[in-house]
Amino acid sequence: MGKKTKLAIFIFLAFIISSYVWFDFFFLKINGEKFERELMKAGEESDVVIVFNSGGWGTVPLDRAFDINPVIDETKKLIEEGDHKVSVVQYFRTEDTFFAKISAIREVFFNFPDSSKAFAGRIKEFREKNPGDKVIMAGLSNGASFVSAAMGEFKDENVFAIEMGAPFWKKNVESENILSLNNQADILANGKLGELLWSVVKAPFVWAGSNLSGKWMSFGEAVHIDGHDYYWPALKGELAEFIEKRAGL
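RESULT FIELD:
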């Protein structure tokens, strides 16, 4: 093995190890503290807190999460109609950099074993200090998998979860406080592997064709997953029933 190859392997391993160290010992703590401060502030202003988890890497702010923003907004309005004060707090699962996303790969592949526990711990602390408040965790796609893993840490009747389009490999948690919403046509949620593979295979060509024609597109946008779209009109009935009958709102 040549010196250049050894050096490349060393740099690669150092990068991977340092990213994991950063995620476990720095990001989870700093991000968790910021999240807890926002939760506590929300608790002062509201009696219901919706905790939002975006899809993908969990880095897209709610105001730019155009796929799920309307659902969160309408859910908030629905609860407010019942004379409740509602705040929305977002939890970011990593940072929006290449290094940070690499650091989070292990969590994604293994259903968020560490980050979901850290996240749940912050919510438990919030509930101890705000026993009269209710928490509704809402997630889309990978965000739904994350929320599902976190629900495994709770035996709290005032913590609820709304999962939309969770991938078929998510950790299954049995709880009456979970509302799982999956479109029948969603190839990711329903594990249609052949169609998923085709979506990945054709993505580079879609991405290249779009960008070469002057229409900028991220690679993530090029990986179109059929049926993986969740809109308020289709969800309203089940969400309204869950919020009223299960969450008591």
